[in-house]
Amino acid sequence: MAPEPRTCVRVLVIGGGYVGLYTALRLQQRLKAEIRKREAEIVVVSPEPYMTYQPFLPEAAAGAISPRHVVVSLRRVLADCQIVVGEATSIDHARRTATLSTPATEENGRTEQLSYDELVLAPGSVSRTLPIPGLAEHGIGFKTVEEAIGLRNHVLEQMDIASSTRDPALRDAALTFVFVGGGFAGVEALGELEDMARYAARYYHNVKPEDMKWILVEASDRILPEVGAEMGRYTVTELRRRNIEVRLKTRLESCADRTVVLSDGARFPARTVVWTAGVKPHPVLAATDLPLNGRGRLRCTPRLGVDGVAHAWAAGDAAAVPDVTAKEPGRETAPNAQHALRQARVLGDNIVHALRDEPLETYAHKYVGSVASLGLHKGVAHVYGRKLKGYPAWFMHRVYHLSRVPTFNRKARVLAEWILAGLFTREIVSLGSLEHPRAEFELAAGGKASGDPKGSF
C-alpha cells in the first residue's frame, strides 16, 4: 500500500505507555490550534487502547484496586488524536514510513504502511526471559493488568486446590509460591499477594498462613537497589519476619514438571513461578534504521532526539538518554516511570519547538528517590536523602502514585476504593474462568474446551 498524500504535519507516536500517552497529550495541548485547522495530526499506535499504570499492578493483584482503575483509556484522554490499535513491526525512517500490524491486517494477511513527518518511539520494554527449562510453559509474567489479575486468580485457586485435596505432595506444591527477581515488580507483587493470601486463609478451614511457602529468588546480593543498601537490607529483614524466604545470590535453573530447581541446590515442587527478573528493549527497535547502543536502546541526545537523526525522538525504556545532572561522564537516565513522565513533557515541547523553528530544551532531572510497598501498611522509601520504613513509607507510596496516575477521574476512583477498602473486608473471590469465557459453552455444545477453565499453572 503506497503512502497516502498529505498536506498536514503528522506526528506518529509508537507506544501508548507513559511516554506515548503523555507525549501525545502534551502535543494535543500545544498543537490545539493546528489540529483544529487540520495543519497537524497526531497518530498513536498502541497494542492496547489503554495505558496501564504499572505501579498499581501489585495492588490490583491483591484486590485493593479494581483492574478497570489501573488503566486509562487512550481514546478518552487523547480525544484529538487518532488511536490505532496495533503494533509497529518495522520502521524505515529514511522513507518516513512505519509498517503496522493491526487486527484488520491480521484478518486479511496484508501489511499497512503509515507515513509520518515526526516520529516518537516509545514502545516500552518486554520481559527479559532466559532459556530456563519449563519457564515458557509454566512461568507467569507481571507486566500487564491481565497478568496481574490472572496471578491473583491463580493464587486463590491454588488455595482452593490445597483445601480440597488429601494428597500432601499436591497440597505442598499448590501452597508454594516462587517469585524470581528482587526489583520493584517482584518485591511489591510478592508483598501484596502474600498479604492477601494470609488474609484469605482465615476463610479456609484447613489452610493456615504458616502452611504457605513464599520464596523470593534474586541473582544478586541485594534487593530493591533503587531504595539504597540500608533500606534493601531492611526489606529483606521485614520479608523474612513474615516467614518469606529470601534467597540472594541464587538463580532459577529449572521449573520443568512443576519442580523448581535453584542454583543453591534447593529442589521442591511448586505450581506457581512468577518471573519478574528484568526487562529488555522492545523488538521493534531492532527493526528500524535508527542507531542503537550496546543494550539495544536508541542512542539519544539530552534534547530527546535520536542521535544524528532528524525528525526522530525517543524517551522512556526505549531511549538511552544522557543524564546531564550526573557527576560521572557517560551516565544515562534510569528507565523508570519517574524519568519517563518528565521526559514525555519535554519531548512533546521539543517537537513543537522543532515544528516552529524554536530552540530546543534540554532534559535535566535529578533522581529524587524511590518508594516501594511491601503490603498493607508496610513499605520502604528513600526520597531526597531521607529513609522511611513501615507505615510512613507505605503512606508516601500511595500519595505519590495517586498524584501521578493520569486523569482526575482515575485519581478519584482509586482514592474512593482505598477508603472503601479501609471500611470493609477484602474481596477474596477468584474469577479464573474469565480467562477462558467460552470453555463452559464449548463443553455444553458437545465440543472440547479450548483451554483450562481455571487457567492453572
From TrEMBL:
Superkingdom per UniProt: Bacteria
SUPFAM superfamilies on file: FAD/NAD(P)-binding domain
Keyword Oxidoreductase: yes
Record's keyword terms, sorted: FAD, Flavoprotein, NAD, Oxidoreductase
Domain FAD/NAD(P)-binding: 10-340
Family: Belongs to the NADH dehydrogenase family.
Protein name: NAD(P)/FAD-dependent oxidoreductase
Species lineage: Bacteria, Bacillati, Actinomycetota, Actinomycetes, Kitasatosporales
